[in-house]
Amino acid sequence: MYKKIIPLLLIPVLILASSTLHAREAIKCASTTSTYNSGLLDYLVPLFTKETGIDVDVVAVGSGEALELGQKGEVDVVLTHAANLEKQMVGEGFFIDREEIMYNDFIIVGPDSDPAGIKKTQKVIDAFQKIRTAEAKFISRSDNSGTNMRENRLWAMTGTMPGRKNPWYLAEGQSMADTIRNASKQRAYTLSDRATWLSINDKDKSGLQIVLEGDPELLNQYGVMIVNPANFDHINYQSAMNFVIWLTSPAGQAAIGAFKDSSGNTLFTPNAR
């Protein structure tokens, strides 16, 4: 992808150009709370800005809201983890130049006592079914985030979506970190991305633990794409493309792979093609 895009851009504005050329250049990026709360963007953006002179203003929201901001032209680029919806919206003409840049995975966290007996299962679908059968408390983000979209898909694979008629299913409509904290208070299960779970400083005192991980169904792919400039005159396509180039370049991919939490855990695995 790095070699394919370079010829399409004017040489003076490539990411290797003098930062003077990009003075006061800025783009707006809507991204997920997981990339923000984990500290990844606080780590990546200064590296990108130092190399290019392009500032990045980050709006941290759920994937659904990030895509909506892009659809409305309120940002230049989005970095989300809702691959199916991302591809659909590219096909519909809202975004262009989508590239996959990294992945981590989802996990189920729940009470140490594990009332639904999930630790004995290996498949996430079986785990969700056990939660339903046991009517064990489950807290959903219920916010149209990428995590919530994945959760809904998993519930659907068990047969039906739980809802208001299921008192054990609690739709909170909060961020991932707040959802985990509520799960701790209510001794409930929830689906989380691993990066957010690892970023919570007091998780060892939460009474929660990872009860299921490793199922291929839990792969969490992140993609970056640019708002289609044909739809809006104000989209800073050139600088947004340089952001995409950098994220998928050897330098950007190495930076993503080098990012770790305070305990030395790798939170995201780079996988740009």
Short précis:
The protein has 273 residues and is an alpha/beta fold. It is 37% helix and 22% strand.
Describe this entry's structure for a reader.
It is a single chain. 44% of the residues are buried. α10 crosses α11 (250-258). The protein folds into 2 domains: 2-104 and 220-270, D-Maltodextrin-Binding Protein, domain 2, CATH 3.40.190.10; 105-218, D-Maltodextrin-Binding Protein, domain 2 (3-Layer(aba) Sandwich), CATH 3.40.190.10. The model is unreliable at 1-23 (pLDDT under 50). It is built from 11 helices and 10 strands. The termini are close together. The protein has helices at residues 2-5, 33-37, 40-52, 63-71, 83-91, 124-134, 146-157, 176-186, 194-199, 237-248, 250-258; strands spanning 26-31, 55-60, 77-80, 95-111, 138-140, 169-171, 190-193, 208-212, 219-227, 269-270. By secondary structure, the protein is of the alpha/beta class. Strands 1, 2, 3, 4, 7, 8, 9 and 10 form an 8-stranded mixed beta sheet that branches. It has a two-stranded parallel ribbon with strand order 5-6.
